[in-house]
Hints:
Layout: H1 20-29, H2 35-53, H3 57-68, E1 72-79, E2 82-89, H4 92-108, H5 115-127, H6 132-146
Antiparallel strand pairs: 1-2
Helix pairs in contact: 1-2, 2-3, 2-5, 3-4, 3-5, 4-5
Amino acid sequence: MRKAKPKKRYILPDPKFQETLVTKFVNYLMVKGKKNLSYSIFYDAIDIVQEKTGENGLDVWKAALNNIMPTVEVKSRRVGGATFQVPLEVRPDRKIALGIKWLIRYARLRGEKTMVQRLAGEIISASKGEGSAVKKKDDTHRMAEANKAFSHFRF
Length: 155
C-alpha cells in the first residue's frame, strides 16, 4: 500500500473555450501524444455539431456528456467464496471520466469515415438520449438495479 495519497493534478483550460473539461476530454482523445491533432478533431466536431443542430456546439456536447455520465455502477465483491456484483454510487470525478471514456470509445466504433464525423455523430445522438454510449449507461444502471439485493455488501 502507498504511503501518501498522490497530489491532485490540475489541468489548464483549453485555448478556445477556456474550459478545463474540454482539455480533459482532449487528453482522453489524444493518441501517441498528438495533442494538437486531438484539439483539431474536437473543435471540428463541435463545429459540425453546431452546423447540424443549429445550437451552440459546446452546450450540446455538455448535454451529451451529462446524458452519458452514470450515477451508479457495480463492483465485484467476494463474500464467503461467492462473488457478488454490488451496486455503488459513482464519485463525481469518476462519473466525468467514465462519461468521457464511453463517448470516445463508442465514437471510435461508429461507421463514419473520419474521427471528426464519428465524434460529431456520437455527440449529437448522445445529446438526444440515443446512441451506444447512452445505451452503455443504461446497461450499467440496469445491472445495478438488478443487483440491488446485494447492496448491503457495500464496502
